[in-house]
Structures are given as C-alpha cells and as structure tokens.
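Good morning C.,

I know you're traveling, so I'll keep this short. The sequence:
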Amino acid sequence: MALDELKSALPDYAKDLKLNLGSVIGNNEALTQQQLWGTVLACAIASRSPRVLRELEPEAKANLSPEAYTAAKAAAAVMAMNNVFYRTRHLLSDPEYGTLRAGLRMNVIGNPGVDKTDFELWSFAVSAINGCGMCLDSHEQVLRKAGVEREVVQEAFKIAAVVQAVGTTLDAEEVLA
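The tokens, ready to paste straight into the viewer:
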C-alpha cells in the first residue's frame, strides 16, 4: 500500500506526519471514497512532490472512476492557474484589478464530469495548498450552500495540510541525504 510506503519513508522527526497521514487518508470516515481519493490526488498534484504523487496516484486511480480521476486532475490544473491569478488580484493594493474581466477559460468548473460538490471540495483543497484566500472563500461558500458540513470541509484542508507537509519533508530529506 502506497500509504504505508510514504509513512515508512518519513524520518523519525516527522512522526506526527506519519500518524496524521494514516488518520486523514487511511481512517477517514467523514468523506465518501470519491471525495477522499479525489482530494488526495488533487492535493498530491498540487504538492508538487514527485514522490508523493508517485506513491499516491496509483491508489487514487484504483479508488476513483475514470471520470473522477480525470476531474481531480482537472481541479488541480485549473486551480493552479486560478490560485495564482486570484491571489495576485487580491494581494495588489489597486482594487481596480478586481473590476477587470479575468479572460481565463475555466469551463471545467461548470462541467467537471462528476458531482459538482466533489469538484468544489477538490478545488478548495488545492486552494489551501496554493494559499489563495479568495478561492478558499469562494469554494467554501459554494460547499456550505450545497449543504456540506464544516467538518467535511475541514477534512479536505486537513488532507491538503498533511499531503503538503509529507511532500515537503520527503523532498527535503532527498536533498539532504
């Protein structure tokens, strides 16, 4: 199991990450299988860690329908663009940028090929990794309006936090070895 491989690869100083990885992925009862593995895949991509993606992708693929697998990758892709764009727009002190048309194609958000709520959850988790407050607020509001409980939303950003931390730690260990 890829999860066990990642946990065993983590150094002793990252024991908390080992435990958290097991709890947010291995013992997650708050999310459906599709929500869980779509979030894991989207976050593994967003983490930019080749090792994390290599380890988690096969298990995600095995637990997702082909449509959900593609949609999770699409969420990571479109949010990689949107998070930079909207984070920059938000950080600029000139509010006039907020009035300009974005002019970026984001069709997949309107028609992701899976349940829109799941796609929003994956987009939210990727936005947590990429640190875009505007996107976090936007996706969280859509999720909450769709009836998604705060505990489910929090599970998504817990997965994002742990996957990102595991990637950072393992990539650092590879360089420092």
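Safe travels,
E.
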